[in-house]
Amino acid sequence: MTRAAAVILRKDLRIELRTRESVPAMALFAVTVYVLLHFGLDRDTLDGDLASGVLWVTLLLATVLAVNRLFANEREDGALDGLLLAPIDRTALYLAKAAALFLYLVLLELVAVPAFALLLLSPGLGGALPELLAVLLVADLGLAAIGALVAALAAETRVRELVVPLFLLPLLVPVVIAGASATEPLLAAPQEAEGLGGWLAFLALYDTVFVLVSLAVFDFLLED
Amino acid sequence: MSDGVGAARAASPEAAAAHEEVVPPSGNNPVVELERLERRYGERAALQGVSVRIEAGTTLGVFGPNGAGKTTLLRVLAGLLRPHGGTARVAGASLPEEAWKLRGRVGYLGHEPLLYRELTGRENLRFHARLHGVPTDRVEALLAAVGMEQRGHDPVRELSRGMVQRVAAARAVLHDPPLLLLDEPRAGLDIAAAALLEPLLGRSSGRTRVLVTHDVEAGLSECDAVLGLRAGRQTLRAPAAEVAPARLRELYA
Prior knowledge:
Largest sheet of chain A: none
Helix content of chain B: 25-40%
Low-confidence stretches of chain A: none
Mean pLDDT of chain B: 87
CATH class of the largest domain in chain B: Alpha Beta
Strand order of the largest sheet of chain B: 6-7-8-3-9-10
Order of helices and strands of chain B: HHEEEHEEHEHHHEHEHEEH
Oligomer: heterodimer
């Protein structure tokens, strides 16, 4: 299963490198939002809970863009049928899509987090960067696990642009709550890591539950 | 293509006679056995009461007007659509319970090429070869066989329709499947390209085939048995040698 997943993931990354349809769009969206907030808010800088909320909601909405595109190549020219006809476990497709989305999110954050710090953050990232990266990576696993599941659910529907946000956003609320709560003290002045362990544990548990649920139901989602 | 139309046709003397014509099994090694197969889309019956048996190494030609259920039949046989009634056994797998057994045992060439536009023909075939566990040197052999070794490095989106069809044909036989499901396989091909694909997809390939085509004369010449569909119902089933082209054309009237 992991070999087939690696083959599909490599194909997806090759197509993304060629078309540059997902990651640049996500990054551009996030940076644009930060620029708009930079000029639109009646404040020069943010910190604490407001900064944390702005960071996470923007990342969440950028995730929606990627989830909408995650099965785009499979939909064109019936390519998904080619995968369904192959002698592979269908969960390999889920693992590949979740891994691709995880990588897209990491690449997004490499651009979006520095832009956020530059345009909006009052205390700067400073010494809290390792803790922030830990929260982002654990949250990204959840975003990717749930995003790949919802992308598959929406892949064969005609109204996928509606289905994705309607299913994805409610499922991601706990991730955003935990991510924002864990990040809030890191973005405040003075920076602290208050309650970080608990929120990371919650995120890891939520990730695990959704990976297991997704592996259990993914086959059924691809049934006609 | 309502149920009413189908029912009326099935009740006609001609249709009733067609149902009574049973293709005598020429051997005892069926690759496909369908008994009163049904498939619906919502309330609409796309296939109803289709019974057929295909022996190994033979070709079943499927004829019928647009919307008759030909493509639906192929997709059910490929395991891409679940049957909703009757029994279906394909390449040793009972559908829908054992559809997973069918994966990798069917070569499917449909209306869509099942290729990625942004990848080259060679990359597409290598991708499918890895999924099917096929050595990648077979990719080069097949690209040469379909006359695409020179253009194999071009993205599929830059190829002509005929070239895409050639790569799609190579994809369909890449894993040497025991059963080929072909939906208008020569669509978009010029005469030379069609001849090029003959050893892979044609009668001379020796494969068990289900061939959907609207070309009555050419189709009849390469079939062992004929299945006529109209509004999802089976209106003709007979050995190809006993079917005149004019009778097939009546399906389209």
